[in-house]
Amino acid sequence: MVITVAKPTNIPTEITLAEQRVVFHNISWQAYEQILAALGESRSSRLTYDRGTLEITMPLEEHESAVRLIELFIRIWVEESGLKIKTMGSTTLNRPDLQKGAEPDDCYYIQNQPLVAGKIVDLNTDPPPDLIAEVDITHTNINKLNLYASMGVPEFWRYNGKILRIYQLQDSDYIEVENSPTFTWSIKERLYQFLEEGKFDEIEAEKALRGWVQQVQS
Questions:
Q1: C-beta neighbour count of 86 within 10 angstroms
Q2: Which of 17, 18, 53, 68 is 20 to 30 A from 61, comparing alpha carbons?
């Protein structure tokens, strides 16, 4: 087993890291499951496993702040659009048949919400989440595009602290698209504005966003 501490170098002291990551190589699926069980559910760290590579991420303030605001942004859009949602948060998504597992920052059932409403999701019989959103501000050793595409997740958002990239699954691969296929309006610029406003006052940012969505939906 090889262990790598993914710690960026030559970072100015005034810059605060958003995540800390530790990477383990040559980890079997059985060992990954044992680590999951040993760590339990009452933890802030998140595990991602891809065919022998295990990455443990410890999110820090900048990461978690962005995650929570993006989660709020999606919920407001869904609510004001009259859609339904099942929020899965960082639920462990394991696919032993693919030798892949993940605990994403946020995942949601929106289009397929009626298929999983009121039940515990079983990826052996239920569809994958419709939308996964992740914040990766520091470098990750896992190919997230390959990971979630192989799981069949239709839409993947990836935010690096400055830019949101939206990917849509087409023919088993992700294609970067400008607009989310889930929502009918271009959301990127409004998300950037919401994230900036939310740094200073989350309540006022939420009120402003709700008003804006209601206006464009009318």
A1: 19
A2: 53
How many Cα atoms are found within 13 Å in the side-chain-facing hemisphere of 187? 23
Task: Convert the pLDDT of each residue in 106-143 to its tens digit.
Answer: 999 999 999 999 999 999 999 999 999 999 998 898 99
Task: Return d(Cα 3, Cα 21) in angstroms, integer.
Answer: 11
Mapped onto helix, strand or coil, the DSSP state of residue 48 is strand
What are 61-82's pLDDT values in tens digits? Answer: 999 999 999 999 999 999 999 9
Model confidence, pTM: 0.89
**Single-letter code of the amino acid located at 66:** A
Note the Cα 176 to chain centre separation in Å: 16
Secondary element (H or E) of residue 216: helix 202-217
Token readout for 7 is 């710690």
